[in-house]
Amino acid sequence: MHIIETRNLTYAYPNRPPALNGVNFIAGRKARIAVIGANGAGKSTLFKHLNGILKPTSGEVLIHGEPITKANLREVRKMIGIVFQNPDDQVFSPTVEQDIAFGPANLGLDEETVHHRVESAMRLLALDDLRTRPPHHLSGGEKKRVAIAGILAMEPQVLVLDEPTAGLDPQGVTDLIGFVNTLPERFGMTVIFSTHHLDLVPELADYVYVMDRGAVAAQGPVPAIFSQPDLLARTRLDVPVLQRLMRSLREAGVPLGEGYTYEEVEAAFREAYRGRP
C-alpha cells in the first residue's frame, strides 16, 4: 500500500481556473520524488493537499489507503510534514529551541519525549549553537534549517519540501543535499520536493513528476525524464547543465555514456578516456 496516493485530484481557487486538474500521484516508503514544473504548474497546491491544508474540489487524497477526513486530520499531519518555501511562514516562536518544540508539543507528547526529539533534531541540523536565538534574527538558510528541524521533531513518515534550496548559498545547498539524502535509509522516510533548479534533481530524486498547468505532463525515473529535451521545453523547463554538456559532446563525437548525477558523469568521462594520454 502506498503512503500517499491522489486520485483525479482537482482544485480551483475562488474565481480562478483549476490549479490542479485530475492529478494522480503516488509516493511509497523511502521514495525520493521530485515534482518539477514552471511557475503556476500546481506544485505548491498539490503539496498543500498532501496533509489536508487544502481540501480537493473533486477527487481524493489517500494516506495509507484512507481518505483524509476531519476525524483523521491530526494523525495525517503527524505522518506528512511540510516545509514551505518561505521559512518565515513556519518560524515564529521566541527562540529556536521553542520553535522546534512547538510541533511535537502540540502532538500531546510528554515533556521528556518532546525534549528528546528537539535535541535530536537540533543535532541533525547543527542548530545547537542557535538554540536561544530568536528565529527572526537568523539568516535565510538558518531559518530553513529551523523549519526543517521543527518538522523532523514530529517524526513524520514523509517530508515534503517546497523549493528547499530557495535562499540558500552554495554551501547551504550542498549541506541540504547531503542531509536530505540520509533520510530514506537512516529513518525510512519518504522525501518529496519541488525545485526550479533541475541540476539538483538527479542528486536528490529517483523518480520525477513533471507538472504543467495543473496536470501531470509526464512521470518516470530521472533518466527517462531528462532524456526528453522536447518534454522539458514543452513544459517550460531547461535541460540540466550536465545533460546539455554531455549531449553536446556526444554530438561532437566524444564517446560518452549516460550520466545524470555528478558521480555518474565523472565515471562516464573516465570510461571514455580510459587508457588515453
UniProtKB/TrEMBL annotation:
Give yes or no: UniProt keyword Nucleotide-binding. Answer: yes
The record's annotation in CDD domains points to: ABC_cobalt_CbiO_domain1 (cd03225)
Instruction: Please verify whether the record's keywords include Ribonucleoprotein.
Output: no
| Classification via InterPro entries | AAA+_ATPase, ABC_transporter-like_ATP-bd, ABC_transporter-like_CS, ABC_transpr_CbiO/EcfA_su, Co_trans_ATP-bd, ECF_ABC_transporter_ATP-bd, P-loop_NTPase
Q: Which GO terms describe its cellular component?
A: ATP-binding cassette (ABC) transporter complex
Cellular compartment(s)? Cell membrane
- Its primary localisation, in coarse terms, equals membrane
- Tell me the GO BP annotations in alphabetical order: cobalt ion transport
| Gene3D superfamilies noted in UniProt | P-loop containing nucleotide triphosphate hydrolases
Q: Where is the ABC transporter domain?
A: 4-238
Which PANTHER family does the UniProt record give? ENERGY-COUPLING FACTOR TRANSPORTER ATP-BINDING PROTEIN ECFA1, HEAVY METAL TRANSPORTER
What family classification does the UniProt entry report for this protein? Belongs to the ABC transporter superfamily.
Q: Please state what the protein is called.
A: ABC transporter ATP-binding protein
Protein species of origin:
Methanofollis liminatans DSM 4140
Instruction: List the taxonomic lineage.
Output: Archaea, Methanobacteriati, Methanobacteriota, Stenosarchaea group, Methanomicrobia
